[in-house]
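To: structure desk
From: M.T.
Subject: fold request, one chain
Message: Could you run this one when you get a chance? Sequence is below, nothing fancy, just the single chain.
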Amino acid sequence: MVRQTALRPGLRFWFEAGTGEETSDRDGDGVIDAIGDTFDLIDILRKKGYSDADIRYVEVQGGRHKPHTWKKVLSDFLKWTLCHTTR
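Reply: Done. Structure tokens follow.
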């Protein structure tokens, strides 16, 4: 779906993944799927024309899909969001 969607200037993306999200590694590259899939999506976005300034990726060591992990990165998300809304 992302590949088939046109570039939308001004759109920004903030991603977070935790290394403890899961254990699945379907392609056997040593990177869990939650992180690998996020990297794949970021690559697609870059190929579409989004810049590194439009994309933020945060990886939480041991992080899981739980509020405790989200709490660790909330301030980063808010700072990034505020920084990028004043452009």
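Reply (cont.): The first helix runs from residue 33 to 48. Let me know if you need anything else for the meeting.
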